[in-house]
Amino acid sequence: xxxxxxxxDPKYIIDLIIKRRWIIMVPFxxxxxxxxxxxIKLPKIYEASTxxxxxxxxVPENYVQSIVDSDPSTRLSTLSQQVLxxxxxxxxIREFKLFSNEKQQSMxxxxxxxxxxxxxxxxxxxxxxxxxxxxxxSFQDKDPxxxxxxxxxxxxxxxxxxxxxxxxxxxxxxxxxxxELQSMKARLEEVxxxxxxxRESYMGELPEQLDSNLRILDRLQEHLGETQQSLSEAKIRxxxxxxxxxxxxxxxxxxxxGQESRQETNDINQMKLELExxxxxxxxxxxxxxxxxxxxxxxxxxxxxxxxxxxxxxxSGGSGQSQSGSVSPQYxxxxxxxxxxxxxxxxxxxxxxxxxxxxxxxVEDTPKREQELLSLKRDYQNIQTTYDSLLERKLEAEIAVNxxxxxxxxxxxxxxxxxxPQKPVKPDMRKLFIMVVGAGLAIGGGIIFxxxxxxxxxxxxxxxxxxxxxxxxxxxxxxIDSRTRMLRRVEYIASAVxxxxxFVFFAGFALLALVGVEPTLELVKKMIHT
Length: 530
What we know:
The protein has 530 residues and is α+β, with helices and mostly antiparallel strands. Among the domains are: 10-42 and 427-529, no CATH class; 46-183 and 392-416, Bacterial polysaccharide co-polymerase-like, CATH 3.30.1890; 253-323. 71% of the residues lie in helices and 8% in strands. The chain contains 16 helices and 6 strands. The chain has helices at residues 10-19, 21-41, 72-83, 86-96, 102-105, 109-118, 144-201, 210-250, 257-279, 287-305, 308-316, 329-405, 429-454, 461-468, 482-514, 517-529; strands spanning 46-55, 120-127, 130-141, 253-254, 322-323, 411-416. The strands form 2 sheets. A 4-stranded antiparallel beta sheet has the order 2-3-1-6. Strands 4-5 form a two-stranded antiparallel sheet. Helix 8 packs antiparallel against helix 12 (329-405) and helix 9 (257-279) runs antiparallel to helix 10 (287-305). The chain is rod-shaped and about 205 Å long. The model is unreliable at 253-258 and 307-325 (pLDDT under 50).
């Protein structure tokens, strides 16, 4: 006969559980004992945590701009690496005497540090409305007092390292800006020296001197024209004088002193007319005007110095002296004066032409100097702009350094310090309670299911009808005698006592799991003493 399936009738299942109650109670009782032993014997791990607030800088950023990295996540990552470094963790191990039992003392230092690092956690708190503004530090250990002390020490390390790191970063930034400022200052002075040397080397050819050079060039060209005009007039006078001298040599004349004096007077009058003509065109300082005035004064002096006796004696002579081929000293004097004037004018013209050449070259070279000077000025302006920017940043960095030294910048502040934990976080007693109770019931239920599944006997009249396809006319109940009834009562009592004991163990395990080991043990001690 094939094995019969287990009916899903609730009444049948309840009757089955009552019938197989020992199979349920014994595994459950054993599970409760195991759970109580585990709850008492498993090592207790306590955890303490502290909440640290990231406090913004006290000085408004509109007045002082911080030069420290303002991303809390980045700085916390860096701080975590520093605080959880080998050197710092070794210091914590020595300070709080961690891993001090005999078994742990034999561990390698690397294993101790790795174990300690696993028990420390740093969690960043985030808020959608603002950036990260707090973080928590947690530590786990078997001793509640050690957990609290180590957690607070880690919080102090984070706060101190943050202050040191911010100050070091601010000082480092300030030093970097200072070195760059000195380097840029040296470059600026170098370009300034080049600019000064260039101006000194090409003085007179600079763009700002172009207008002055053009005005000087105009005056020189005007002066050269006047000089050439005067030279032309001198040449004309010289040619006239030479023609007159040639005429005197060719025609003999009888010169009488009185007639000579009249001729000189006429010459003076002629020169005065010429002087008036020159004054209408030139000033008193013009060379021709000065020269003509000098000649007039000299001739007037000569006339004034001729005595009348000379004229009388000349007249008493009765007859003039015939002179052929001779020239008067007056003409020689004029001739020499004109030659001297021409030499001076030619020298003046040559000097003026040389100066004109110099100033023309300056004017021609001005565009070239302008381009070269523009390149130097552009370099100077770029370096000057960079220098001014670095100087401004350097001043801001010095203010930021002072702010960090006075602890007016962004800081970490302990919001919730670590307290001594009262309840262990490991093992999780609630999970242990559920797992142990479930395991005890599952084992008993599984055994009952296997027994019933492998039992191929008929359990109900319906099983007979279903298997034989014949109706059951009647059923005969089990006949129980007095001895069997007695044994059944004893079994009921024993099962009730055993169930009560199992329930007590269940209650004790529940207290251990939900209330805690120490409070439960204290409660048991009080109950025993009472």
